[in-house]
Amino acid sequence: MLEVYIRESRKVNKKNDEVYIRHHLVEAVRTDKGPRQRVVMPLGQLMLPKAEWKKLAHALEYQLSGQLTLLGAIDQDIETLALKLISNNSLSKSTKKKSSESSERELVTIDVRSLATSKSRTLGAELVCQHIWDLLGFDQILTKCGLDDMERALAKAVIFGRLISPGSEKHTIEWFSRRTALPEFPGADISALGKDMFYHIGDILYDQKDMLEELLFHQERKLFPFTETTLFLYDLTNTYMEGSSLANNLAKRGHCKSKRTDCPLITLSLLVSDDGMPLVSHVYKGNQSEPETMDDMIKRVETLMWGGQLTLIKPTIVMDRGIATADNVAYLQENGYSYIVVRREDESEEYRALFEAGKDTFTRIDKKRRSAYGDENNVYVKRLGAPERTESGADICKVLCISEGKARKERAIDERHAQRFIGDIGNLTQSIKKGTIKKLDIIQKRLDGKLSKHKTLAKQYSVELVIQDGKATDISITKNPSQESQEKLYGCYVIESAITHLDEVALWKLYMTQSEVEAAFRAMKGNLGMRPVYHQNANRCSAHLFITVLGYHILATMSNLMGKHHDTRDWSTIRDALSTHTRSTIIMKEESGKVLHVRVSGIPEEVHTDIYSKLGVKNPLKTVTYQVKIDP
Question: Cis omega before residue 532 (within 30°)?
């Protein structure tokens, strides 16, 4: 093959004076009329800097001629772009063939010893994500938000990356360049773009956050309409950040739910419907007080659903103990919202007599429930008499609940904390008896430090130094009589609700839908790479979290569609199953010396077909075949 190069052509639309730019791979050939240019293949409009055209031309030449040993010298991004251009060009040609031609066979003699595979890329999870992307109308939504072809393709890459290979933006760039077949999917070509654009697209998406969530909300409601009993579930979580983040006003120290007390935090609040679909999200400082966020989030969802206008149809709000303060409950009552909560102020002691009377007077939830360890997790509920009238004039009812699993967990936690507390005091006692420390003031200081470390638990004990002849000889530790006589009400809690017409079992089941928002947070942290956050800039951190939320829109949609087939597999299980469906290049040599390059998708296995059929997934990528003779 003669040396090739890239030529640019421009055409002007006479109607609107718009200039169309196209690029072609061409080679110089000798004819009877002299040297001429022959088009080897069209390239569409390249986003590649002109300085890189020569590299791309060489990469295309090597790909077409099968000179694989030379590819190591080509930049990886250029090589990926060349492969995609060849794939797209062949797909375009194949669609123009007549149906009669497609059925013809071409038989050649192949040297089986020359068979090899190259550039295997994951395909299965990408097909599922692309199907949900199209179902939600993401391209149309992003277009309404002002994103162009290149930005939409970048958005797809970073969102799919969170779903398929969770990690940082740097990790996503590496995944997109080397491990996924996504660059071969129809759409704007971004293989030649620099890494900075992968970071910048997050900023663009976050700038359009409110509009994106509004458009997604209306699209998802077409797929999963609200019912008369729709619940909105609200909760917050936080995630830790790597680095000092000194210039980040969102990065604050606080109680880390991931147990990373050494790192600054950033908080994400999320409102989801009872089918698990996300509604609105917001990013707060890492030390944000949970109860203070509810008013803000309710107003956000009102704007989303009704444009801030009052309506007679309002959802029921479900919140956990961390947010359900007396003030927040009063806010819901005053604004006409039904609600189901476990109040932040523990009311269990008020009903101790009823709890201690035993489970015989309660109703056991029929459904068999088991803990993660396989033991039974029975739940018992009892509704208190007639509804109560609050100061705001709202009627409420209360349900007493006893959870065996919750009781075991709470008791185990308390026992573990008690062992640590007694162990710390025991270590100090041993030091005193061995004479390792003798000065009374130092001993008292260390004891005060132990008591401060276990501040809550220390209130349940009487701890005193035993002093003889002016020297500390021991430490006396006894449990307070009040703690001995009255055991903690393990596994007991009180549900309060403004829904007064349902029985205790129905109310408990409605409250337990709170697990949907907890599942959302687990998915985002575990399956969508939300943690940790490496960015130091506040806006870039918020963008990182918002990309995770957008990924969860796809994940939740997929879960709902699978649920219609009673398939409860989570995304990590489905993703692992699909990881074996790949797309590869098969290379083989003909008897004549020509080299065949066949870019082909693997045949779906039974587990792949099962998932694809339930979701309605189809593979848009066709087999691409090239047959090129190597010049002597």
Answer: yes
Please indicate, yes or no, if residue 343 is contained in any of the structural domains: no
Domain boundary among 485, 503, 531: 485
* Residue that finishes a domain, picked among 208, 239, 267: 208
Per DSSP, the three-state class of 197 is: helix
630 closest CA partner among 589, 585, 593, 590: 593
Cβ neighbours for 102, distance < 8 A, ≥ 6 positions apart? 94
Please give the Cα distance from 370 to 291 (Å, whole number). 31
Q: Is 529 exposed, middle or buried (0-12, 13-18, 19+ CB in 10 A)?
A: buried
Helix ranges (DSSP H) in 224-356: 294-306, 326-334, 352-356
The pLDDT tens digits for 157-213 are: 999 999 999 888 888 999 998 999 998 888 756 877 778 888 899 999 999 999 999
pTM over 0.85: no
Read off the pLDDT band of 16 (50, 70, 90).
Answer: confident
In a domain, 201, yes or no: yes
Alpha helices in 46-148 (DSSP H): 53-65, 76-95, 99-102, 124-135, 138-144
Do 146 and 91 share a structural domain? no
| Distance from the first to the final alpha carbon of the chain | 9
Which value, to the nearest 10 degrees, does the dihedral of the CA atoms of residues 601, 607, 611, 616 take?
A: 50
Distance CA 494, CA 348 (A): 6
DSSP for 381-405, written as a single string: EEE-SSPEE-TTS-EEEEEEEEEHH
Same domain, 150 and 94: no
Pick the closest to residue 319 from 287, 297, 335 (CA basis).
Answer: 297
Contacts of residue 406, defined as CB under 8 A and 6 or more positions apart, other chains included, come to 490, 491, 493
Who's near 311: CB < 8 A, 6+ residues apart? 305
Residue 89, sorted as left (phi over 0), alpha (psi -120 to 50) or beta, turns out to be alpha
Q: Give alpha helix (H) positions in 435-537.
A: 440-453, 455-458, 481-485, 504-511, 515-526
| Domain membership flag for residue 437 | yes
| Domains in the chain, number | 3
Residue 553, domain member (yes or no):
no
The answer to whether 249 and 267 have CB atoms below 8 angstroms apart is: no
Rounded to whole angstroms, how far apart are CA atoms 155 and 137? 13
Higher confidence at residue 90 or residue 419?
419
Token pair of 225, please? 């309409």
Q: Is 87 helix (H, G, I), strand (E, B) or coil?
A: helix
Paired residues of 231 in beta bridges: 316
3-state secondary structure at position 277: coil
Select the more confidently predicted residue: 79 or 9. 9
**Residue-number span of the structural domain to which 422 is assigned:** 409-485
Number of neighbouring beta carbons within 10 Å of residue 310: 9
